[in-house]
């Protein structure tokens, strides 16, 4: 065996036995990934879970054919050759990433996996010398090329229009719970909570540089605080709100953006020009948040306007009065 630990070799250097060994381990890995998809989707998306379970069975069949060919050609001992041993070879996402993937992301990943496997087998055919091995690798290339159609056949078998509509609705709700809701909360907090310190500083000092520094500190500090709070207070297991990491990122980033929106105008050295621009941005921010609440959270528009626009205006007025006083 010519592989050395932590040393990667070009695919062009592999011999026929090593190519078969690589194909065997690759099919095993892909079957394991599909089964992880099936497990992750089993509770919420049972029809799609069955599609991936059936695709794992197909990969197992490929692996058995490859093992039989290796036994006939090279004997029982199969060298350990994996994707990470071959330079330039495609890699799969780590299995722990499955927990953070959406249904659509899993479907897209499966399509990419099949296309990559097809390209591998087409390249492997050119490296094989034995006629039976070439025939098997060519058959597997054709099988992988047809797997997207096969996946569609499996989807048709397990995913009725009602099933697909139900799963798509669940995926949309999960997107809202994981990304939109914490992001919206962050955007609202960042936009509203930083109004008072930024505009109090602006009218108290009338110094754009000082106001900018205070605004940056308020926006970044609020983003870090909101991000950690969102991630820490709910692991998503009971609430079903999804990955705490994703929710924390959405909340933290949008909080920072909300605060930066009316802090960055103070990059302009003229105080009144910067302040008028910041006020215009605040106006747009508050109405945008009200629209997002109405669009994604089904909050009645009037209630959203009262909560966000009126509330934000009061905070803004408080900051101006404190700063001017």
Write the layout of secondary structure elements.
Elements: E1 9-10, H1 16-41, H2 46-74, E2 86-87, H3 103-127, H4 131-145, H5 147-158, H6 161-193, H7 195-205, H8 208-233, H9 244-261, H10 271-296, H11 301-324
Helix pairs in contact: 1-2, 1-3, 2-4, 2-5, 3-4, 6-8, 6-9, 6-10, 6-11, 7-8, 7-11, 8-9, 10-11
Characterization of the model:
- 75% of the residues lie in helices and 1% in strands.
- The chain has helices at residues 16-41, 46-74, 103-127, 131-145, 147-158, 161-193, 195-205, 208-233, 244-261, 271-296, 301-324; strands at 9-10, 86-87.
- The chain contains eleven helices and two strands; from the N terminus they run E-H-H-E-H-H-H-H-H-H-H-H-H.
- With 325 residues, it is mainly α.
- The protein has a two-stranded parallel sheet.
- It folds into two domains: 9-159, Ferritin (Up-down Bundle), CATH 1.20.1260; 165-324, no CATH class.
Radius of gyration computed on alpha carbons: 28 Å
Number of DSSP strand runs: 2
Helix content: over 70%
N- to C-terminal separation? 80 Å
Write down the overall mean pLDDT. 85
DSSP helix count?
Answer: 11
Structural class: mainly alpha
Percentage beta strand = under 5%
Quick rundown:
The protein is an all-alpha fold. It is built from eleven helices and two strands; from the N terminus they run E-H-H-E-H-H-H-H-H-H-H-H-H.
């Amino acid at each position: 065996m010519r592989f050395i630990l932590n040393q990667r070799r070009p695919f062009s250097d592999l011999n026929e036995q090593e190519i078969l060994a690589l194909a065997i381990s690759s099919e095993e890995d892909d079957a394991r990934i599909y089964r992880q998809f099936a497990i992750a989707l089993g509770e919420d998306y049972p029809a799609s879970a069955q599609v991936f379970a059936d695709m794992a069975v197909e990969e197992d069949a490929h692996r058995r054919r490859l093992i039989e060919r290796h036994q006939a050609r090279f004997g029982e001992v199969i060298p350990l050759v994996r994707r990470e041993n071959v330079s330039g070879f495609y890699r799969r996402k780590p299995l722990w990433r499955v927990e953070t993937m959406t249904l659509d992301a899993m479907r897209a990943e499966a399509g990419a996996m099949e296309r990559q496997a097809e390209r591998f087998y087409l390249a492997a055919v050119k490296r094989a010398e034995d006629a039976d091995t070439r025939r098997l690798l060519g058959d597997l290339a054709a099988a992988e090329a047809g797997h997207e159609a096969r996946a569609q056949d499996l989807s048709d078998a397990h995913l009725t229009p009602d099933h697909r509509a139900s799963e798509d609705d669940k995926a949309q709700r999960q997107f809202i719970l994981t990304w939109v809701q914490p992001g919206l909360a962050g955007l609202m907090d960042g936009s509203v909570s930083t109004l008072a310190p930024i505009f109090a500083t602006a009218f108290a000092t009338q110094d754009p540089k000082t106001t900018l520094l205070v605004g940056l500190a308020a926006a970044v500090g609020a983003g870090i605080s909101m991000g950690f709070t969102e991630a820490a207070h709910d692991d998503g297991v009971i609430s079903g709100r999804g990955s705490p990491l994703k929710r924390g990122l959405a909340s933290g980033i949008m909080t920072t953006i909300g605060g930066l929106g009316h802090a960055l105008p103070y990059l302009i050295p003229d105080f009144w020009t910067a302040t008028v621009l910041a006020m215009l941005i605040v106006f747009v921010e508050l109405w945008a948040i009200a629209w997002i609440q109405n669009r994604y959270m089904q909050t009645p528009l009037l209630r959203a306007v009262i909560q966000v626009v009126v509330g934000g205006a009061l905070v803004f007025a408080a900051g101006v009065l404190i700063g001017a006083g």
